[in-house]
């Protein structure tokens, strides 16, 4: 395990103690067979997702909803890590650039654009195994403070 992923695990452990009822990673993350690739504390998270046959649309490329779910599975944990609190998406905008097919790997890198007291903005890009842009995404989130 590289040092950045050790930091990620330590930060998840810290948050698990603060929020014992939160399940990280969630079932939807595990279902998509996601793998942590890189992490910059509270600012950037990179995760890869295999493009499986069950994710394909009739044109045999990854369905847009699964691509958006992959983005959500990166933006969600990054928001939680960044805010040190639960966050709720206000919106999420995905722009689809090119198809990605079964057997390929969708790698998403999300970065915190700005983090305020009550909201944050995160932008992300997803690339295929050749490093070509598949889709981009941005999300505004509300930070929900623990009472």
Overview of this structure, please?
The structure is a single chain. This protein has 147 residues and is of the alpha+beta class. The protein has one domain: Hotdog Thioesterase (Thiol Ester Dehydrase, Chain A, Roll), CATH 3.10.129. Helix content is 28%, strand content 38%. The chain is built from three helices and six strands; from the N terminus they run H-H-E-E-H-E-E-E-E. The protein has helices at 3-18, 27-31, 64-83; strands spanning 35-40, 44-50, 86-96, 105-115, 119-127, 133-144. Strands 1-2-4-5-6-3 form a six-stranded antiparallel beta sheet. Strand 4 and strand 5 form a beta hairpin. The mean pLDDT is 95.
Question: TL;DR of this structure?
Answer:
The protein has helices at 3-18, 27-31, 64-83, and strands at 35-40, 44-50, 86-96, 105-115, 119-127, 133-144. The chain has 147 residues and is an alpha+beta fold.
List keywords for this structure.
147 residues, six-stranded antiparallel β-sheet, Thiol Ester Dehydrase, Chain A, globular, alpha+beta, 38% strand
Largest sheet: 6 strands, antiparallel
According to CATH, the fold-level topology is: Thiol Ester Dehydrase, Chain A
- The secondary-structure class comes to alpha+beta
Mean pLDDT: 95
Query: What's the CATH architecture name?
Result: Roll
Which strands sit side by side, in order, in the main sheet? 1-2-4-5-6-3
Radius of gyration: 15 Å
Seen as an oligomer or otherwise, the chain set is single chain
Number of strands: 6
The portion of residues assigned to helices is 25-40%
Query: What is the CATH C level class, in words?
Result: Alpha Beta
Task: Indicate the low-confidence ranges by residue numbers.
Answer: none
Distance between the termini: 35 Å
Please provide the ordered H/E string of secondary-structure elements.
HHEEHEEEE
């Amino acid at each position: 395990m590289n040092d950045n992923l050790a930091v990620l695990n330590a930060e998840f452990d810290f948050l698990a103690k603060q929020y014992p009822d939160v399940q990280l990673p969630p079932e939807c993350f595990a279902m998509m067979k996601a793998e942590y690739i890189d992490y910059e504390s509270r600012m950037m998270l990179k995760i890869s997702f295999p493009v499986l046959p069950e994710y394909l649309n009739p044109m045999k490329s990854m369905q847009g909803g699964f691509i958006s779910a992959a983005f959500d599975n990166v933006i969600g944990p990054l928001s939680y890590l960044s805010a040190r609190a639960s966050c709720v998406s206000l919106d999420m905008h995905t722009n689809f650039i090119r198809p990605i097919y079964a057997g390929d790997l969708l790698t998403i890198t999300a970065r915190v654009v700005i983090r305020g007291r009550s909201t944050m903005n995160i932008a992300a890009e997803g690339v295929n195994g050749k490093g070509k842009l598949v889709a981009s995404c941005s999300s505004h989130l509300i930070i929900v403070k623990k009472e």
